[in-house]
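testing teh design pipeline on a random one, pls ignore if ur not involved
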Protein backbone atom coordinates (compact mmCIF):
# COMPACT_ATOMS: atom_id res chain seq x y z
CA UNK A 1 0.00 0.00 0.00
CA UNK A 2 1.80 3.07 -1.20
CA UNK A 3 2.18 6.10 -3.45
CA UNK A 4 4.35 5.85 -6.55
CA UNK A 5 5.48 8.18 -9.33
CA UNK A 6 4.72 7.00 -12.86
CA UNK A 7 5.80 8.42 -16.21
CA UNK A 8 2.79 8.60 -18.51
CA UNK A 9 1.86 10.52 -21.70
CA UNK A 10 1.00 14.16 -21.10
CA UNK A 11 -2.42 13.55 -22.64
CA UNK A 12 -3.08 10.48 -20.49
CA UNK A 13 -6.75 10.85 -19.57
CA UNK A 14 -7.57 7.86 -17.39
CA UNK A 15 -10.01 9.07 -14.66
CA UNK A 16 -8.42 9.92 -11.32
CA UNK A 17 -9.20 7.46 -8.56
CA UNK A 18 -10.38 4.77 -10.99
CA UNK A 19 -8.44 1.49 -11.02
CA UNK A 20 -6.33 1.13 -14.14
CA UNK A 21 -7.91 -1.45 -16.44
CA UNK A 22 -4.61 -3.17 -17.08
CA UNK A 23 -4.40 -4.13 -13.41
CA UNK A 24 -7.84 -5.76 -13.33
CA UNK A 25 -8.30 -9.37 -14.39
CA UNK A 26 -11.06 -9.62 -17.01
CA UNK A 27 -14.39 -10.72 -15.58
CA UNK A 28 -14.52 -13.71 -17.95
CA UNK A 29 -11.51 -15.19 -16.13
CA UNK A 30 -13.15 -15.01 -12.70
CA UNK A 31 -14.34 -18.41 -11.54
CA UNK A 32 -17.75 -19.13 -10.11
CA UNK A 33 -18.22 -19.52 -6.36
CA UNK A 34 -17.99 -23.05 -5.01
CA UNK A 35 -21.46 -24.72 -5.19
CA UNK A 36 -21.12 -25.77 -1.55
CA UNK A 37 -21.79 -22.13 -0.61
CA UNK A 38 -21.40 -21.41 3.09
CA UNK A 39 -20.25 -24.99 3.68
CA UNK A 40 -17.05 -24.28 1.74
CA UNK A 41 -14.75 -22.09 3.83
CA UNK A 42 -11.85 -20.89 1.68
CA UNK A 43 -11.74 -24.27 0.03
CA UNK A 44 -12.04 -26.26 3.25
CA UNK A 45 -14.80 -28.02 5.14
CA UNK A 46 -16.35 -26.73 8.35
CA UNK A 47 -14.50 -29.48 10.24
CA UNK A 48 -11.16 -28.20 9.00
CA UNK A 49 -12.14 -24.64 9.93
CA UNK A 50 -12.95 -25.72 13.51
CA UNK A 51 -9.70 -27.65 13.92
CA UNK A 52 -7.76 -24.73 12.45
CA UNK A 53 -9.32 -22.38 15.00
CA UNK A 54 -8.50 -24.74 17.88
CA UNK A 55 -4.88 -24.94 16.68
CA UNK A 56 -4.78 -21.14 16.46
CA UNK A 57 -5.97 -20.92 20.06
CA UNK A 58 -3.25 -23.34 21.17
CA UNK A 59 -0.61 -21.11 19.60
CA UNK A 60 -2.26 -18.03 21.07
CA UNK A 61 -1.52 -19.42 24.53
CA UNK A 62 2.14 -18.96 23.69
CA UNK A 63 1.47 -15.45 22.34
CA UNK A 64 -0.49 -14.55 25.47
CA UNK A 65 2.40 -15.64 27.68
CA UNK A 66 4.40 -12.68 26.39
CA UNK A 67 1.43 -10.38 26.91
CA UNK A 68 1.36 -11.53 30.53
CA UNK A 69 4.97 -10.45 30.90
CA UNK A 70 3.76 -6.96 29.98
CA UNK A 71 0.90 -7.27 32.48
CA UNK A 72 -1.77 -7.44 29.80
CA UNK A 73 -4.91 -9.54 30.31
CA UNK A 74 -5.32 -12.79 28.42
CA UNK A 75 -7.12 -12.75 25.10
CA UNK A 76 -10.91 -12.64 25.57
CA UNK A 77 -11.22 -15.91 23.61
CA UNK A 78 -9.90 -17.68 26.67
CA UNK A 79 -12.42 -18.27 29.43
CA UNK A 80 -11.53 -19.23 32.98
CA UNK A 81 -10.37 -22.81 33.48
CA UNK A 82 -11.20 -24.38 36.86
CA UNK A 83 -8.39 -26.10 38.76
CA UNK A 84 -8.24 -29.85 37.94
CA UNK A 85 -8.74 -30.83 41.58
CA UNK A 86 -11.70 -28.50 42.17
CA UNK A 87 -14.78 -30.08 43.73
CA UNK A 88 -18.30 -29.01 42.90
CA UNK A 89 -18.35 -26.80 45.99
CA UNK A 90 -14.95 -25.33 45.09
CA UNK A 91 -16.22 -24.51 41.62
CA UNK A 92 -19.35 -22.87 43.01
CA UNK A 93 -17.37 -20.63 45.34
CA UNK A 94 -14.91 -19.77 42.58
CA UNK A 95 -17.75 -18.41 40.50
CA UNK A 96 -18.35 -15.93 43.31
CA UNK A 97 -14.71 -14.85 43.09
CA UNK A 98 -13.67 -16.67 46.28
CA UNK A 99 -11.31 -19.06 44.54
CA UNK A 100 -8.79 -18.47 41.76
CA UNK A 101 -9.00 -20.40 38.54
CA UNK A 102 -5.94 -21.81 36.80
CA UNK A 103 -3.48 -18.91 36.35
CA UNK A 104 -2.25 -17.83 32.91
CA UNK A 105 0.10 -20.28 31.12
CA UNK A 106 3.51 -20.76 32.67
CA UNK A 107 6.73 -20.16 30.65
CA UNK A 108 6.89 -23.78 29.44
CA UNK A 109 3.95 -23.05 27.12
CA UNK A 110 6.60 -21.54 24.82
CA UNK A 111 8.15 -24.98 24.38
CA UNK A 112 4.77 -26.36 23.43
CA UNK A 113 4.05 -23.58 20.94
CA UNK A 114 7.50 -23.87 19.36
CA UNK A 115 7.23 -27.64 19.14
CA UNK A 116 3.78 -27.51 17.60
CA UNK A 117 4.67 -24.82 15.05
CA UNK A 118 8.17 -26.12 14.33
CA UNK A 119 9.70 -22.73 15.13
CA UNK A 120 9.44 -20.02 17.74
CA UNK A 121 6.90 -17.22 17.49
CA UNK A 122 8.06 -14.06 15.78
CA UNK A 123 7.90 -10.49 17.05
CA UNK A 124 4.15 -10.30 16.38
CA UNK A 125 3.43 -13.85 17.52
CA UNK A 126 2.78 -17.03 15.56
CA UNK A 127 2.07 -16.26 11.91
CA UNK A 128 0.04 -18.12 9.28
CA UNK A 129 3.01 -20.32 8.36
CA UNK A 130 3.31 -21.47 11.97
CA UNK A 131 -0.43 -22.11 12.08
CA UNK A 132 -0.27 -24.21 8.91
CA UNK A 133 2.64 -26.25 10.26
CA UNK A 134 0.83 -26.80 13.56
CA UNK A 135 -2.39 -27.80 11.80
CA UNK A 136 -0.48 -30.28 9.66
CA UNK A 137 1.03 -31.89 12.76
CA UNK A 138 -2.35 -32.19 14.47
CA UNK A 139 -4.03 -33.71 11.39
CA UNK A 140 -1.10 -36.08 10.88
CA UNK A 141 -1.29 -37.14 14.53
CA UNK A 142 -4.90 -38.14 13.84
CA UNK A 143 -3.63 -40.48 11.13
CA UNK A 144 -4.85 -38.29 8.26
CA UNK A 145 -3.24 -36.56 5.29
CA UNK A 146 -3.21 -32.77 5.93
CA UNK A 147 -3.07 -32.16 2.18
CA UNK A 148 -6.37 -33.99 1.68
CA UNK A 149 -8.32 -34.04 4.93
CA UNK A 150 -10.88 -31.29 5.28
CA UNK A 151 -10.55 -30.15 1.67
CA UNK A 152 -13.86 -29.24 0.03
CA UNK A 153 -14.71 -32.06 -2.41
CA UNK A 154 -16.73 -29.80 -4.72
CA UNK A 155 -13.95 -27.32 -5.52
CA UNK A 156 -10.92 -29.38 -4.41
CA UNK A 157 -9.68 -26.58 -2.18
CA UNK A 158 -9.91 -23.72 -4.69
CA UNK A 159 -13.03 -22.12 -3.13
CA UNK A 160 -14.29 -21.66 -6.70
CA UNK A 161 -14.99 -23.73 -9.80
CA UNK A 162 -14.25 -23.16 -13.46
CA UNK A 163 -17.01 -21.73 -15.61
CA UNK A 164 -15.47 -23.53 -18.59
CA UNK A 165 -12.57 -25.98 -19.03
CA UNK A 166 -9.21 -24.24 -19.01
CA UNK A 167 -10.46 -21.05 -17.34
CA UNK A 168 -8.11 -21.47 -14.37
CA UNK A 169 -5.10 -21.97 -16.63
CA UNK A 170 -6.02 -18.83 -18.57
CA UNK A 171 -6.34 -16.87 -15.33
CA UNK A 172 -2.95 -18.13 -14.14
CA UNK A 173 -1.40 -17.02 -17.43
CA UNK A 174 -2.95 -13.54 -17.28
CA UNK A 175 -0.51 -10.72 -16.50
CA UNK A 176 -1.01 -7.11 -15.49
CA UNK A 177 -0.20 -4.45 -18.04
CA UNK A 178 1.20 -1.05 -17.10
CA UNK A 179 -0.24 2.23 -18.37
CA UNK A 180 1.48 3.66 -21.47
CA UNK A 181 4.83 5.32 -20.83
CA UNK A 182 5.43 8.95 -21.66
CA UNK A 183 7.05 12.24 -20.70
CA UNK A 184 4.50 13.17 -18.01
CA UNK A 185 4.89 12.90 -14.24
CA UNK A 186 1.93 11.48 -12.29
CA UNK A 187 1.18 10.33 -8.75
CA UNK A 188 -0.49 6.92 -8.35
CA UNK A 189 -1.86 5.03 -5.36
CA UNK A 190 -1.38 1.29 -4.91
CA UNK A 191 -3.62 0.85 -1.89
CA UNK A 192 -6.07 -0.70 -4.36
CA UNK A 193 -4.91 -2.44 -7.54
CA UNK A 194 -3.61 0.97 -8.58
CA UNK A 195 -5.02 4.24 -9.92
CA UNK A 196 -3.80 7.76 -10.77
CA UNK A 197 -4.48 10.41 -8.13
CA UNK A 198 -2.95 13.48 -9.79
CA UNK A 199 -2.99 15.07 -13.22
CA UNK A 200 -0.08 14.29 -15.54
CA UNK A 201 2.43 17.16 -15.27
CA UNK A 202 5.05 18.23 -17.78
CA UNK A 203 7.91 18.13 -15.30
CA UNK A 204 8.87 16.73 -11.91
CA UNK A 205 9.01 20.29 -10.56
CA UNK A 206 5.39 20.93 -11.57
CA UNK A 207 4.31 17.76 -9.77
CA UNK A 208 6.39 18.75 -6.74
CA UNK A 209 4.69 22.13 -6.50
CA UNK A 210 1.28 20.50 -6.87
CA UNK A 211 2.09 18.28 -3.88
CA UNK A 212 2.49 21.44 -1.77
CA UNK A 213 -1.15 22.39 -2.43
CA UNK A 214 -4.23 21.34 -0.49
CA UNK A 215 -5.31 19.14 -3.40
CA UNK A 216 -1.90 17.49 -3.49
CA UNK A 217 -1.97 16.91 0.26
CA UNK A 218 -5.30 15.12 -0.05
CA UNK A 219 -3.89 12.89 -2.78
CA UNK A 220 -0.92 11.63 -0.77
CA UNK A 221 -3.21 10.17 1.89
CA UNK A 222 -3.18 10.43 5.70
CA UNK A 223 -2.70 12.91 7.30
CA UNK A 224 -3.81 14.66 4.07
CA UNK A 225 -1.49 17.60 4.59
CA UNK A 226 0.47 19.36 1.82
CA UNK A 227 4.19 18.60 1.62
CA UNK A 228 6.88 21.20 1.81
CA UNK A 229 8.65 21.73 -1.50
CA UNK A 230 11.73 19.96 -0.10
CA UNK A 231 9.65 16.95 0.96
CA UNK A 232 7.88 16.85 -2.41
CA UNK A 233 11.14 16.95 -4.34
CA UNK A 234 12.64 14.30 -2.07
CA UNK A 235 9.66 11.99 -2.54
CA UNK A 236 9.76 12.38 -6.32
CA UNK A 237 13.49 11.57 -6.27
CA UNK A 238 12.72 8.40 -4.32
CA UNK A 239 9.86 7.55 -6.70
CA UNK A 240 7.94 5.46 -4.17
CA UNK A 241 6.79 5.53 -0.55
CA UNK A 242 4.74 3.17 1.62
CA UNK A 243 1.56 4.41 3.27
CA UNK A 244 3.34 4.32 6.63
CA UNK A 245 6.79 3.47 7.89
CA UNK A 246 8.16 2.82 11.35
CA UNK A 247 11.54 3.34 12.96
CA UNK A 248 12.94 3.98 16.42
CA UNK A 249 11.16 7.33 16.41
CA UNK A 250 7.73 5.75 15.95
CA UNK A 251 5.16 5.55 13.14
CA UNK A 252 5.46 8.02 10.25
CA UNK A 253 3.35 8.90 7.22
CA UNK A 254 5.23 7.31 4.33
CA UNK A 255 5.41 10.06 1.70
CA UNK A 256 6.39 12.72 4.23
CA UNK A 257 9.03 10.52 5.83
CA UNK A 258 10.56 9.34 2.55
CA UNK A 259 10.48 12.87 1.14
CA UNK A 260 12.21 14.31 4.19
CA UNK A 261 14.76 11.49 4.41
CA UNK A 262 15.62 11.67 0.71
CA UNK A 263 15.86 15.46 0.80
CA UNK A 264 18.19 15.35 3.81
CA UNK A 265 20.42 12.81 2.12
CA UNK A 266 20.37 14.85 -1.10
CA UNK A 267 19.88 11.89 -3.42
CA UNK A 268 19.33 12.49 -7.12
CA UNK A 269 18.68 15.73 -8.94
CA UNK A 270 15.82 18.07 -8.00
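output:
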Amino acid sequence: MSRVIKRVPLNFEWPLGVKWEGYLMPERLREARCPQGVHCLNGGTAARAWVTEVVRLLLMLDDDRRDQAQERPMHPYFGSVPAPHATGEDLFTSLRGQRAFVPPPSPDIAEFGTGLAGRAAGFLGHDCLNEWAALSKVVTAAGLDPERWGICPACEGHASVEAYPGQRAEADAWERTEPPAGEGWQLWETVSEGSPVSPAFGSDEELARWLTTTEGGQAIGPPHQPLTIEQARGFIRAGWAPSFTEDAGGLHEGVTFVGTDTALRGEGAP
